[in-house]
Amino acid sequence: MDDVRHAIPASPVRFMDQLRLHMRQKGLSYRTEQTYTYWIKRFIHFHKLKHPKDMGRAEVQAFLTHISINRRCSVNTQRVALNALVYLYRQFFGVDTADLDFKTARQPRRLPVVYSRDEISRILTQLGGVYRLQVALMYGSGLRIAELLSLRVKDIDFDSNNIVVRSGKGNKDRTTLLPQDLKGELKAQVSKVLKLHKRDLEDGFGEVYMPDALERKYPKGARQAAWQYLFPAGSFSIDPRTGMERRHHLHPSTLSRHIREAVKLAKVLKPAKAHAFRHSFATHLLEAGYDLRTIQELLGHSDISITEIYTHVVNRGSKGVFSPMDRLSPSGPGISEPVIPYSAVA
Description:
By secondary structure, this protein is mainly alpha-helical.
């Protein structure tokens, strides 16, 4: 249950607990909390465990330059570290962080890994049962792996053909497509979940993790069928907040392992990444003629510039753009071009 917030004292004494409490009061998502605390801890260790309140702009600049020059991090990674430290000083300590001067990372942002439609089909053929359904949903709905595994029964709206993604990246809710081809499999999965939940209740269990605010708002919700995870784990685990034994969702490492095996068996010579199915969803929609704004909303991107990266990996041939080399081949597109006399351009 590593995506469940750990309990902290109501009046924490330890610095990191005070910082976590501040983040929760500000409404940051748990994933953001984990990311920020990771980088702040690295910052503290880089400066030999010196307390952040005894450091300032010079130490922040030194750390950001270090991860850029010595650790060769990407621009995006450095930006995340910067955001964490800006939060620490500006939001937590109330210290101005303007005019920071540090070496910007030089590692460029890499193009996303995208599978072709044929490669998607071959990978899906190598998967079975619930793992095939999960990968098909990531590709068919553009879901991140964490969003997929966090789905509850009530998040699948068969009537409106929507999937509700709750507390996605940036702690935002959104809706995305429910693939028509997966409706039958999803209904069968819901039926399995309800049977498992009934058995858990009979055995004295049946509760699932509920975020803090929802747990207070719906005190009986944790035992209701609608709140059960769509992809429950095969065994119980301990809730780190309460110590209760509960059935959580499948762990992402299990799905990632099956994806690696399927990509290898499908003889796809590209990195085996769960996120590649989300990239493929966006790219194939763009190739099909859907506008960037629509794709941005389905993916839940806060800025359309993030979505624009997919314009660099679309199949240009499908847009009527052919390489000049293809025009030399007898088997090429055969599009005639006017012959311009040399005298006209000399």
